Amino acid sequence: MKEYRTVNEEEAEQTDSEIQPAEAQINDNGVFASENAKHNIHCLTVIGQIEGHYILPPQNKTTKYEHIMPALVAIEQDMSIEGLLIILNTVGGDVEAGLAISELIAGMSKPTVSIVVGGGHSIGVPLAVSAQKSFIVPSATMTIHPVRMNGLLLGIPQTLSYFERMQERIINFVSKNSNIKPERFRELMMKKDELVMDVGSVLDGETAVNEGLIDSLGGLNDAVECLYSLIESRKSVGVIKKQTDKKTSKGTKSKTNQRTGTAKRQTSDAHASKATAKVSTMRQYTPKSSLYGGGR
To answer: What's the rounded mean pLDDT across residues 83-109?
Structure first.
């Protein structure tokens, strides 16, 4: 006998088959949200090569900026997310795409903490310093080198000027979002005896902190605890601000009430003075009969 099922039963069976365990979700999406954490934070991974306007070969592990940008906007708007943790292990990539992501992170109102594990090379340096607090593990390295481009180039002064201006954009951003001076960062960028096939410098974790490029040396626990403290301090500031606003509003209301009472008293006094003046005018009025001796 043929069994007939409703559409709802078929949809429920299909939904149950689509449910995956947490491990599969981590492998597919790269994100796992803990349900019993102290604070609700979002983990953003920047790995492989930063892909810009051109699609990289399929065998390359990439971070696509068209995926990261809307994700940052969603994190900024999501009221349930209290902070952002950025984990970096990147070889660099497209300069403009990396700077765009860095500017978005630096412009967020929510607490942000970055940690460099493995490597934060090339355009990964601005990404690492874009957060409010930055960490690096001792075994990680960061490569600082000038802006370069492969492919067909026009050997004209305008091309060199364009490279120099783009390089200045990177230097200005890094110096504004870290404790390293522009002159020192430019010196590390132009160092000649560090890299074999290029100019620049390779900094390990401790050296990056000593140079002022990264805030602290530490691991995952240090980064998470720092993010928790930023979240809690932000909440305390918000509570103090609310209390101050309430006190200010109460003071404004009392002042307004005082002004209203004064205005009412002034108005009543004005009405009383008008009434008194009217009475006095009536008293000064003399009938015509008294003037002409009254009657005929």
So the answer is: 96
Active centre residues (catalytic)? 122, 145
Q: Which two tokens stand for residue 293?
A: 């001796």
CA atoms within 13 A on the CB side of 168: 6
pTM of the predicted protein model: 0.72
Strand, coil or helix: 146: coil
CA distances from 52 to 17, 86, 214, 286 (A): 37, 19, 25, 100
Q: Which CATH architecture fits 36-238?
A: Alpha-Beta Complex (3.90)
Domain ranges of the chain: 36-238, 247-289
Neighbours of 143 (CB within 10 A): 20
C-alpha to C-alpha distance for 49 and 64, rounded to whole angstroms: 9
Q: Shortest CA distance to 50 belongs to which of 60, 41, 59, 40?
A: 60
Query: Which CA distances in Å does 110 have to 21, 77, 128, 242, 289?
Result: 30, 10, 16, 18, 89
Predicted pLDDT at 1:
46
